[in-house]
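Writing this down once: the sequence line spells out the residues, with the fold written below as integer tokens. I am pasting one below:
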Amino acid sequence: MLLLYSSLFIAVLALFFGLYACGRVATVLSATKDLDWTAIANMTGDLASTKKTIQTLNNRINGMHSPKIAEQELMLQLLNNQQNKQNGKLQGG
């Protein structure tokens, strides 16, 4: 008896899930009824430009917080070279 009621419950539950899915599909179809390929192309372009802007902003933000090791090393080498040139002058006489 338990098997009969549980299978009936599962069948009714599946029916409700199917009706819910049909309702959602109908909602999407009615929302996109007036949508044409030009509008889709415009939205795709807008999304691409927005993505590029976000990536640029993230790169700037990450660049502010990360140490610039290569630039620091170059500056230290330049400073060392300048000090060596000043200290390495020959005084003859």
Notes: Residues 1-34 form one domain. The two ends are 117 Å apart (CA to CA).
